[in-house]
Amino acid sequence: MGIDQRGGHDARAKARFHLPEAEKMRRLNALRHALQRATPQSGERPGRHPTGHYSRTILAPLCFFLGLGALAFAFFSWLGSPTVRQAGTRMEIVIPAALDGHHYLDGAINGQPVTFLIDSGASYVSVSHGLAQQLGLARGNSATFMTATGPVSGQIVADQAVAAGGFGPLPLSVSVMPGSRPMALLGQNFLRHVETVQANRQLILRGTALPASKAPSPARIRAPWVALTGVALLIAALALRSGRRP
């Protein structure tokens, strides 16, 4: 390679590394702009905004659906709770059918609160073995009961104080059935002491009431608090949706 050729080659190599001033300024401005976008503005914490955005994205719909669920639960609890009418010592309880088609009534066994499923086909007031343990029922006499699935072995515990919806307490025998899930049935040995009428998905019980039987059912007491919780969750969902803290 001659001297002239080497000189031309060196000039082209220098041109590759020595850019025009206009190109240098263009690249410098592009780099400065990229750094400004990556650097948080004053008062903004790095990584704060994406986390807050994702939190609002998740929490807002969660609070919304929980709030709707709480309001629906309160509404159906209020509608499904019994209505009490009383004149002197005579009382009438109107029990709407629950969503599962059954009728439920709050009561007590030996003074301990129990929610009964009213079962006119059951001969006795019945509880599951798990609920009997929770109530502290004494061990009873062994017995065999006929159920829809066939005969099962259980126990009969005599002279238990049973009250339901303001009726009673009555000294009744309570049958203990197999099963760990808490369950209580209001059977015929209690229902024969009251008048029962069933019509339009409602069960009506009439009989002699206790003096303090006008107290509202627990379902009606709980419903307003559950409704308030639902409203609070909906407000929180709207606040998160708008980007503010609730």
TrEMBL record:
<feature type="transmembrane region" description="Helical">
    <location>
        <begin position="223"/>
        <end position="240"/>
    </location>
</feature>
<keyword id="KW-0472">Membrane</keyword>
<dbReference type="InterPro" id="IPR011969">
    <property type="entry name" value="Clan_AA_Asp_peptidase_C"/>
</dbReference>
<feature type="transmembrane region" description="Helical">
    <location>
        <begin position="58"/>
        <end position="79"/>
    </location>
</feature>
<keyword id="KW-0812">Transmembrane</keyword>
<dbReference type="Pfam" id="PF13975">
    <property type="entry name" value="gag-asp_proteas"/>
</dbReference>
<dbReference type="InterPro" id="IPR021109">
    <property type="entry name" value="Peptidase_aspartic_dom_sf"/>
</dbReference>
<dbReference type="GO" id="GO:0006508">
    <property type="term" value="P:proteolysis"/>
</dbReference>
<keyword id="KW-0378">Hydrolase</keyword>
<dbReference type="GO" id="GO:0004190">
    <property type="term" value="F:aspartic-type endopeptidase activity"/>
</dbReference>
<keyword id="KW-1133">Transmembrane helix</keyword>
<dbReference type="InterPro" id="IPR034122">
    <property type="entry name" value="Retropepsin-like_bacterial"/>
</dbReference>
<dbReference type="InterPro" id="IPR001969">
    <property type="entry name" value="Aspartic_peptidase_AS"/>
</dbReference>
<keyword id="KW-0645">Protease</keyword>
<protein>
    <submittedName>
        <fullName>Aspartyl protease family protein</fullName>
    </submittedName>
</protein>
